[in-house]
């Protein structure tokens, strides 16, 4: 498998990346870990005459935790997420989700920025970031802007990011309470048949608020406000969980593929979401 | 046709320089330019791990890295871990515990296991299985691979204790 030829660039700052993106427009693309992009290039599903490797670009790495404000640089790998003790304490759902992505080799290379920018409905981080109400920082020729994860995804591989913009970091406010990421896959290293991210806060014996998002059950990640609302002000008992699952199932739109027919996927989605809610509640 | 790139890498401690198109996959540069045929091409689709090498301290599937990307990197392949006269502990234990049958997956298995034990010198069986999940074997059923890695860990830790 030999990808189409390309010119290779390795700029050292964002300005250099943006200049190349402006110069070559549609013909240029950035590469982070390459573990979504290279397979596509090998299959010639992506042809990129000008490939801009981000590995040497300053300022794209690092995890900073300032009280409950968390900022994760785009080039942070899944392995970095897993290894970061401070992050595991502040927002353990990130490690939980990262451990369910691909396999060790892929996690050393795959980055948070690549995972959320890619726009593949199979990626796990987009749904997680919607659940956490994360903001994506984009830098382009006209400066910097932030877009909420919940507004970022338009269709498969179509996002709010323009061709000249680079995603530099992901940030969110860690919430008190419990959270969980549950995923059903056919084998380790597989994308989700269904996955769910749940975050909820507890007041005494009732749930004060909940946020629920699902992965690979539509052409975009699905954040379901109705599912979250179904848990709020309830003791998260069986009937509340069922109401939340029913609400989430009304918001997803899975298609049949080699992971199964639609009916099966909806069934799995319900099972996985139920597990995630119970696990998050037990931790709240 | 884009220009060839001047690639400089350190492989198994040796500096190497050659010209290559940046799109060349690292596995082919290693096998065909540097004659390091230990890392194998299994699936060529980032799934099997037979091509695993260590790049700048990370276990990497070298079928999923462009040689341009690897420019400047420090790389270790199975050839850098042991030799027929001086087997690596993992090579010894794989032999002893029948951690291989056809041997096709073995260079990737051992290169990955080496990194795993570096990061976690005393893994549980479950941690070995999880840490080796990016490497597929069609022959052994994994049982003896796991045994071999646990045996290597025990041996390396024993040697460490003896030295202390
Ligand atoms: C065998 C295998 C199994 C996998 N399983 C899973 C899985 O279960 N779950 C999962 O979520 N992922 C999975 N992945 C994908 C993996 O996590 C990818 O690494 C990740 O999706 C993309 O990250 P990357 O850094 O490799 O991005 P790249 O492949 O480098 O880039 C992906 C896309 O994002 C763009 N991009 C990258 N960085 C930026 C940036 N900073 N700004 C703007 N655009 C950017 C690129 O232009 C490209 O279009 C798997 C991959 C493999 C090979
Ligand atoms: S040949 Fe690289 S993962 Fe199979
Ligand atoms: S020993 Fe044959 S593939 Fe593993």
Secondary-structure blueprint:
The complex is a heterodimer of chains A (284) and B (164).
Chain A: E1 7-9, H1 14-24, E2 28-31, H2 37-42, E3 50-53, E4 63-66, E5 69-73, H3 78-83, H4 85-90, H5 92-98, H6 104-109, H7 112-118, H8 125-131, E6 135-140, E7 143-148, H9 149-152, E8 153-155, E9 158-159, E10 166-173, E11 178-184, E12 194-203, E13 206-215, E14 222-223, H10 225-231, H11 238-251, H12 262-283
Parallel strand pairs in A: 1-3, 2-3
Antiparallel strand pairs in A: 4-5, 5-10, 6-7, 6-10, 8-9, 11-12, 12-13, 13-14
Chain B: E1 5-11, E2 14-20, H1 26-33, E3 52-55, E4 58-61, H2 67-70, E5 74-76, H3 89-96, H4 106-119, H5 125-131, H6 143-163
Parallel strand pairs in B: 1-5
Antiparallel strand pairs in B: 1-2, 3-4, 3-5
Helix pairs in contact in B: 3-6
Bound molecules: flavin-adenine dinucleotide and FE2/S2 (inorganic) cluster (FES) (2 copies).
Structure description:
In chain A, 36% of the residues lie in helices and 26% in strands. Chain A has three domains: 47 residues, Uridine Diphospho-n-acetylenolpyruvylglucosamine Reductase, domain 2 (2-Layer Sandwich), CATH 3.30.43; 110 residues, Uridine Diphospho-n-acetylenolpyruvylglucosamine Reductase, domain 3 (2-Layer Sandwich), CATH 3.30.465.10; 104 residues, CO dehydrogenase flavoprotein, C-terminal domain (Enolase-like, domain 1, 2-Layer Sandwich). In chain A, helix 11 crosses helix 12. In chain A, strand 6 and strand 7 form a beta hairpin. With 284 residues, chain A is of the alpha+beta class. In chain A, the strands form four sheets. Chain A has a five-stranded antiparallel sheet. Chain A has a four-stranded antiparallel sheet with strand order 11-12-13-14. In chain A, strands 1-3-2 form a three-stranded parallel sheet, with helices on one face. Chain B has 164 residues and is of the alpha+beta class. Chain B has two domains: 76 residues, Ubiquitin-like (UB roll) (Roll); 75 residues, Orthogonal Bundle (DNA polymerase, domain 1), CATH 1.10.150.120. Chain B has six helices and five strands; from the N terminus they run E-E-H-E-E-H-E-H-H-H-H. In chain B, strand 3 and strand 4 form a beta hairpin. The longest helix of chain B is centred in the C-terminal third of the chain and has 21 residues. Chain B is globular, with a radius of gyration of 16 Å. The relative contact order of chain B is 0.15. At the A-B interface, helix 2 and helix 6 of A face strand 4 of B. The structure holds flavin-adenine dinucleotide and FE2/S2 (inorganic) cluster (FES) (2 copies). The site of flavin-adenine dinucleotide has 30 residues of chain A, from strand 2, helix 2, helix 6, helix 7 and strand 10.
């Amino acid at each position: 498998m030999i990808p189409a030829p390309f010119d290779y660039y390795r700029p050292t700052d964002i300005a250099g990346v943006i200049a190349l993106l402006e110069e070559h427009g549609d013909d240029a693309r950035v590469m982070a870990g390459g573990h979504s992009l290279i397979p596509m290039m090998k299959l010639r599903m992506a042809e990129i005459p000008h490939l801009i490797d981000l590995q040497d670009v300053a300022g794209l790495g690092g995890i900073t935790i300032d009280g409950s404000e968390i900022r994760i640089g785009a080039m942070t790998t899944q392995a970095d997420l897993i290894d970061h003790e401070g992050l595991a304490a502040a927002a353990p759902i990130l490690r939980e989700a990262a451990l369910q992505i691909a396999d060790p080799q892929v996690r050393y290379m795959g980055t948070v920025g690549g995972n959320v920018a890619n726009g593949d409905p199979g990626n796990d981080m987009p749904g997680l970031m919607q659940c956490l109400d994360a903001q994506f920082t984009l830098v382009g020729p006209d400066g910097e802007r932030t877009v909420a994860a919940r507004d970022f995804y338009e269709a498969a591989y179509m996002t709010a990011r323009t061709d000249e913009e680079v995603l530099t970091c992901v940030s969110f406010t860690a919430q008190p309470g419990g959270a969980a990421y549950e995923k059903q896959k056919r084998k380790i290293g597989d994308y989700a048949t269904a996955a769910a991210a749940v975050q909820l806060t507890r007041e005494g014996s009732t749930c004060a608020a909940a946020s629920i998002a699902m992965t690979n059950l539509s052409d975009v990640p699905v954040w379901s406000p109705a599912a979250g609302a179904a848990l709020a002000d309830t003791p998260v008992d069986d009937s509340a969980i069922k109401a939340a699952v029913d609400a989430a199932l009304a918001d997803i739109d899975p298609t049949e593929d080699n992971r199964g027919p639609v009916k099966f996927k909806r069934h799995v989605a319900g099972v996985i979401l139920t597990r995630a809610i119970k696990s998050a509640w037990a931790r709240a | 046709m884009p220009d060839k790139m001047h690639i400089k890498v350190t492989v198994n401690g040796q500096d190497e320089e050659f010209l290559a198109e940046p799109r060349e996959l690292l596995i082919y540069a290693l096998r065909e330019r540097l004659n390091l045929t230990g890392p194998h091409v299994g699936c060529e689709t980032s799934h099997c791990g037979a091509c695993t090498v260590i790049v700048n301290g990370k276990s990497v599937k070298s079928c999923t890295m462009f040689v341009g990307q690897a420019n400047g990197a420090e790389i270790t392949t199975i050839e850098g871990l042991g030799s027929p006269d001086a087997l690596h502990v993992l090579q010894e234990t794989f032999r002893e515990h029948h951690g291989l049958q056809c041997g096709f997956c073995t260079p990737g298995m051992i290169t990955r296991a080496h990194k795993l034990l570096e990061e976690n010198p005393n893994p549980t069986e479950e941690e070995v299985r999880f840490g080796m999940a990016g490497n597929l074997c069609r022959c052994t059923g994994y049982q003896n691979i796991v045994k071999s890695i646990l045996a290597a860990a025990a041996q390396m830790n024993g040697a460490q204790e003896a030295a202390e």
